[in-house]
Amino acid sequence: MADRWGAFDADQIRPIHVQAVYDSLSDRPATANRRLDDMSAVFSWGRTRGFADDNPCRRIERVQSEESYEPWPDDRLEILIGQGKRHIVKVALVALYTGQRRADVIGMCETQIRDGIWTIEQGKTGNPVTVPLHPVVLAIIEEERASRRKAQIVAPALPLLTNSRGKPWGKGFGASWTKELIRLKLRPQSVEEIEAGQFRPTFHGLRTTNATVIANTVARSPELFGGIQRVQAMLGHLSERMSKHYARRAEVEHMNRETVLLLPDFGKQNPEIGKHEDGEAAKLLKMVGDEGLEPPTSSV
């Protein structure tokens, strides 16, 4: 704190300054949360002693444990992809189609891509992962390449995905992501306003969505699609336990769908029951076309 803010009075520190420190530690969630707790304790002590009027750490959204990340429902993805700002949506789509973490996605560069294959060493785990890139991701990359050619920039090691100013994303992505979710009304201003049981949109939830879609297909035909090993291969998990964690929701959903078929016919079905709105098809399905988020058919 002294290194970053030593020249400032305590009451000059704003949430945006705390968020910057927190984002710099985002690849180490436990460390980031401990640091946030330490900073919050300092400001709480100082507030009652007249050094600051408010605690700027109070509204910072914490990095959650992997057990708490939810997959995105189709209707929320529709809003994000259909109405979100392009420079944010591009990053979200790369995460959605590759299943990789935020730090690895915004750090993706030319030196890691060859013949449509993205080869990375994951920043969090150090696990090597080879990811065939979906046509949607390849189109996004080609758009970024075209912008660089136009600007006459030759820098293979420079991250490809750029912000609204055409600069590679850095540690400020977290704040921009949160601001966009609030603008789209996908979440309230404060995380304290999210009600119990309400969907909590997170960037890491896009990774969970990727795993859930793959696991749904695997659950339908594990012999054909390679079982839990496919989730392990795509997400870079060395642990079968962690891969099963991501696949559990999809497996339960698939089992419950089959269970419904065991129920008898309790009476005539009436298609007119309830109100049917026109044009309810998700824009996401229209965007990705027939290929969708289907996993590759080759064996793992």
TrEMBL record:
Domain Tyr recombinase: from-to ranges:
92-250
Any GO BP: DNA integration
Question: Which domain of life does the protein's organism represent?
Answer: Bacteria
Q: Does the keyword DNA-binding apply?
A: yes
InterPro entries attached to this UniProt entry: DNA_brk_join_enz, Integrase-like_cat_sf, Integrase_catalytic, Integrase_recombinase_N, Tyrosine_recombinase_XerCD
One Pfam family from the record = Phage_integrase
Protein name (database record): Tyr recombinase domain-containing protein
Keyword DNA-binding on entry: yes
Q: Name one GO molecular function term.
A: DNA binding
- Per the record, the coiled-coil ranges are none
To which protein family does this belong? Belongs to the 'phage' integrase family.
Could you list this entry's UniProt keywords, alphabetically sorted: DNA integration, DNA recombination, DNA-binding
Q: Which Gene3D superfamilies match?
A: 1.10.150.130, Intergrase catalytic core
Q: Which PANTHER family match?
A: INTEGRASE_RECOMBINASE PROTEIN MJ0367-RELATED (PTHR30349:SF41), PHAGE INTEGRASE-RELATED (PTHR30349)
